[in-house]
Design a protein that fits this description.
Order of helices and strands: HHHHHHHHHH
Structural class: mainly alpha
Oligomer: single chain
Number of strands: 0
Largest sheet: none
Strand content: under 5%
Protein name: Lipoprotein
Shape: elongated
InterPro entries: TPR-like_helical_dom_sf (IPR011990)
Distance between the termini: 63 Å
Length: 168
């Protein structure tokens, strides 16, 4: 009886050893789909989720931060930090990175920060004007969509979530 148990255990262990030990490698298409899914979930959590969901959004954004050619991940990381009332010194580098990648809403948010001032201790109209001019140079601005006032409205909605979300 013991011999049969040993034989069965040897066969079972041999089968385990024959399987590859490397983690599953996804093809580039599957990887891109997963990154898009992470970004979509993070956007939803940052813009309309309760305050308690921002930690999950931050984790999703951190996972895909290296693959951010358009600056969208950095923008939503900054918006999440704004909703968490983080220091401006943590927010600005993310917005600057997004603006360098010519993300229209990052440029509009930087304009808002320096023009109103929003989060900044005082207004800096010259600094704000540079971001507005950079926005005017974008292809989307030249095409008329979204207009700069519309981009500012979107940014206001991003940083000032609806009342039902703020109360959570």
């Amino acid at each position: 009886m013991t011999r049969w148990i040993l034989l069965g255990a040897a066969l079972a262990l041999g089968g385990c050893a024959a399987k590859p030990c490397e983690p599953l490698v996804l093809d580039s298409h599957a990887q891109r789909l997963l990154q898009e899914n992470d970004l979509m979930q993070a956007r939803l959590l940052v813009t309309s989720g309760p305050q308690s969901s921002l930690e999950l959004a931050d984790a999703l954004l951190a996972r895909i931060a290296d693959q951010d050619p358009r600056g969208e991940v950095a923008l939503y990381q900054a918006v999440s930090l704004i909703r968490q009332r983080a220091a401006l010194e943590r927010i600005l580098p993310l917005l600057e990175r997004s603006a360098e990648r010519r993300h229209p809403h990052a440029l509009a948010l930087l304009y808002k920060i320096y023009n109103e001032p929003f989060l900044a201790p005082q207004a800096d109209r010259a600094h704000a004007l540079r971001y507005r001019e950079a926005y005017a140079g974008l292809d989307v601005a030249k095409g008329g969509y979204p207009s700069f006032p519309r981009a500012l409205m979107v940014v206001d909605q991003l940083v000032n979530p609806p009342a039902h979300v703020r109360g959570q």
